[in-house]
Amino acid sequence: MDTSELYARGLRRRKKLFGEADVAERMAASGEFGAPLQNIINAYVYGDVWERPALSDGVRSLVMLGMMAASNKPAEFRVHAKGALANGCTAAQVQDVLLLVAMYCGVPAAIEPTRIAADIFGEADPATKP
């Protein structure tokens, strides 16, 4: 498969996962300077790796959440939490992933992602939302 086909397939998957508006915003965020990176993300991340059949979309989303929490990437955690919700992941599944992160990576690694997940999965106290 050539890269233009991978790109098209990845862009379709990315929009399905995160919504057209969010994808357009993320793709435009760095302008022309960021276009090569967006091409790689669409073609190889979503057009190739996310299309592999061994993991379900939900499992892949949960893995992403664990990695983003463990590596202290809250903005990316938020993006992938929305994707996890779209992929049918439950609040309990995300909570269990974050408990694993807390046990294996340290409690501080799980604190902000837990706040983000509570917000996205509708369990945050409305008075504490940003």
Please supply descriptive tags for the structure shown above:
mainly alpha; 7 helices; 130 residues
Structural commentary:
The chain is mainly α. The protein contains 7 helices and no strands. It has helices at 3-18, 20-28, 31-46, 57-70, 74-86, 91-105, 107-120. α6 packs antiparallel against α7 (107-120). The longest helix has 16 residues, at 3-18. It is globular, with a radius of gyration of 15 Å.
Summarize the main sheet. none
> Which runs of at least 5 residues are low in confidence (pLDDT < 50)?
none
Q: Which structural class matches the secondary elements?
A: mainly alpha
The helix content is over 70%
Radius of gyration: 15 Å
Number of E-state strands: 0
Strand content: under 5%
The CA-CA distance between the termini, in Å, is 44 Å
State mean pLDDT (0 to 100 scale).
93
Give the number of helices: 7
Encode the helix/strand succession as letters: HHHHHHH
Oligomer: single chain
Q: What is the overall silhouette?
A: globular
